[in-house]
Amino acid sequence: MLPRELTAIIEAAHRLNPRLAAFTSLLSPQDVALAFNEAPRGPLHGVPVAVKDVFCTTQLPTTAASRMLRDYTSPFDATVVKRLREAGALIHGKTNMDEFGMGSTNLNSYFGPALNPSGPHLAKVEDGEARVAGGSSGGSAAAVAAGLCRIALASDTGGSTRLPAAYCGVAGLKPSYGLLSRWGMIAYASSLDCVGIMAKEVGDVRTTLDVLSAFDEKDPTSAPQDARDRIAEHDDSLSPTWTSTNLSGLRIGVPAEYFLAELSPTVMPSFRRTLESLQAKGAILSSVSLPSTPLALSAYYVLASAEASSNLARFDGTRFGARAVEQEADPATRSALYAASRSQGFGKEVQKRLLLGTYALSAEAFDNYYLQAQRVRQLIRREFDSIFRLPSPLIPPSSSTTSNNAGVDLIIHPSSIGVAPRLRPSNTTTTPASSIASYTQDALNVPISLAGLPGLSVPAGVSAGEEDGEGKGWPVGVQIAGQWGSDKLVLKVGEAVEEGWR
């Protein structure tokens, strides 16, 4: 027998999902009740948790929202899924997403778009007022916002947790790269992919991070234990008196380059009020410069696409993925089998990025595109290191490793260039995914992804007006980011922002 509150959440998920498309699959209420009776009594005992459909699970299919994997069920659980179960969480559904994580709107899904439930009213897909949930983790954000789970796992390669969190008015954390295990997560871009966490309250994000953060020998990108030990040392070196109500002496930088021409004025009143609230709690605000920021988006798409072309090469209809049956008879046509399987199995956005990535890795383009993008990435990392007070815990201490006494502890900026776009803009047949705007939506998120830093999008009110047809009353998020390993401090300030808007 399930508790009444949990029963209501499970029933609501089944009832509302045909309209929201937040989930790609759901456990039956009977299976959830069985899991509840068997769940360990850990810190998440009985908590309904949804998992993005990019993490392997034994109880539900793992599809990455792609036709290529529509019939796949994993024989094992991803490490983060296993740790959730050990903490007592009830994983009752897999959430919708852009196919293989490639997109910012959740329109590139084999299961159709997840709708944003967080505005003034919940529209239908065919309505002109329906809004996207954001991507690629749109299903996770929509499920949390609609109360269909308390916590959701997401993933974040270039903003895929923080952008939908901002659009749907929930908290979304991209932890420091390597802090959470990626074993059992279908790879998009391995040097960028992170496990993300979403919840309505920052406190639930913190609890989940504590459950999931541990070294995993199965993941070659897992941060080593000595770096994790240095995180604790850095936490101790910062003021232990900072709380959500007292931030005296905390230095927060506002990057000048993040206020792009594309930034909508509708998000600025909420951002300014957030800054005023932090100042009232004792935080010291200052302008900082990250001059390479305008180069980040281009570098990101070169690097992410190049890594995707390598990671997704395994899905050829022979080793992995759906096979084009009309091509499978003659071994002499193996190349045709690969081509047909990938053409039929991958959606248009995935095909586009794979072609871009393959070209970037080609002999004639490698130096001009891939290597240049790597140089930009290193430049961005060095710029972030130069503005933070503490050095990165990833760097072993030495005589040359010193604190920057004039630096900041965190940075803050709007999470997105505007509120959630309409699913189908009025008076046009185009969608946010079919224009160049779909690639600029993550402009404020990819710099810290390239640097591997933690970032938290936290709700900061709603949009103020109707500029550019964006509408009034849709969620606005602000993003707090810090040095690698400063996740706890980022969450602490996130709670301060959250408290200011209650």
UniProtKB/TrEMBL annotation:
Keywords assigned by UniProt, alphabetized: ATP-binding, Ligase, Mitochondrion, Nucleotide-binding, Protein biosynthesis
Compartment(s) where it occurs, according to its Swiss-Prot or TrEMBL record: Mitochondrion
Matching InterPro entries: Amidase, Amidase_dom, AS_sf, GatA
Residue intervals of the Amidase domain: 8-491
Catalytic reaction equation(s): L-glutamyl-tRNA(Gln) + L-glutamine + ATP + H2O = L-glutaminyl-tRNA(Gln) + L-glutamate + ADP + phosphate + H(+)
Entry-linked Pfam families: Amidase
Domain of life per record: Eukaryota
Role according to the record: Allows the formation of correctly charged Gln-tRNA(Gln) through the transamidation of misacylated Glu-tRNA(Gln) in the mitochondria. The reaction takes place in the presence of glutamine and ATP through an activated gamma-phospho-Glu-tRNA(Gln).
Quaternary data: Subunit of the heterotrimeric GatCAB amidotransferase (AdT) complex, composed of A, B and C subunits.
Name used for this protein in its record: Glutamyl-tRNA(Gln) amidotransferase subunit A, mitochondrial
